[in-house]
Amino acid sequence: MELNKDFLFEKGRLVLKEAEKLGATQAEVIITLSTSALTRLANSIIDQNVAENHANISTIAYVGKRKGSTSVEVLDNASIASAVADAVKIAKISPENNDFKSIPKPRPLTDIPISETVSPNTINATPEQRAEYSTIAINTAHALDKRVKVVAGAISNITAERIIMNSLGVEAYEIGTGSNINLTVIAEDSTEQTAGWSADNRQDFTQLHIKEVAEQAAQKAANGFGMQYIDPGSYEVVLEPAAVGGFMFFMSYFGFSASMYQDYVSFLRDKIGEKLFSDKFNLWDDGFDNRQIYRAAFDDEGMPKSKLEMIKDGVVKNLAYDTLTAAKDGVSTTGHNAKFRGRSMPFPGNLFVGEGDSNLEEMIAETKKGILITHFHYQNAVNPTKGIFTGLTRDGAWLIENGEIQYPLKTLRYTDSVLSFLANIDLIGKYPKLNYGPAKMPPMKLPAFTISGSQKE
Prior knowledge:
Helices cover 24% and strands 37% of the residues. The chain is of the alpha+beta class.
């Protein structure tokens, strides 16, 4: 396997040299090379096969306390120089950020061996292999129930290399691979159409659980016939791992980011050290843990990642910091800077919820009147200062009564505060066989969860 490490660092040095020449007092650069391929399924056939090579150079230039940035997909030196010049121009006309002190100085990094982040099987995955996996998925889903009409989704693989450098001497390099299968199965009879979903993520393309994903998605679709309406209200709830993961993203983003805390947006403001959640609830971030699919030794500033204990036995422990927010609070960065969605902020992205000793079967059996939920979509904050979020159920929800699943439910909307529904937890299970997303999440049973709306038609 040929690495582009030296080439990327050469381009990074060019960016920093150009920025200094044009008057930048400090500068940062992130350069990413990625090769991705995807086979898309629609109407139970292979609908599309694509492969892409991308190069991205993100430059951040500082002129005093003023900041400018550009992001371009070019690699020739002239275009790079032009992009750096634009970043410096933007910095010179931008307002000052009085909270900015400096970009970070280098810190020792603990490398994760390439053998632990890269799979040759993923690098060498072919369209023929993805087509074979697609055929297995389609045939498996249709064989499970004659009412299955459509298998849709995608099977993909990616290899990405990245360097981060700054004008104070930070130099960091990483390479990793990832693979994904994401399926939605639609079933229908003469009166109704249903949908089921499942997914898996692996570092090694050949380790994707194709058949299991197809079976699970098809079974959920087959179990979805006879959907009924239920009144809004408070219900017990059994959350499958993907549903738990959706909550944790929003908890992490709005609760544990130091920037949200400093801006008085976080629902944890002035509550660090308090017991706010069930003593069964443990939440942490660890980019080094080898159970993570996408491991990382450093953040988007090139600072070393560290394990971050966020909630321990229900007690709120720590916020995630980057260089800017750490300077404001007089602490050290925890290595959690993330540059995404047009923002640069601390964000814990390698999440774990601690396991319990239960399972979905026991959770259902222990439910007197509640709801089993596959996952959510269209989630967002209603009032982040109070931890109130909302979202819709997707691809399967079922009413449970007296320990048995009764019938599937039409789409539900929840609106509730994590400070309320995670204050008490009945049961927590083990991590599932399938990796539904980047976080490690077990299923969870809650005694009370607010359903604010239910589809009637």
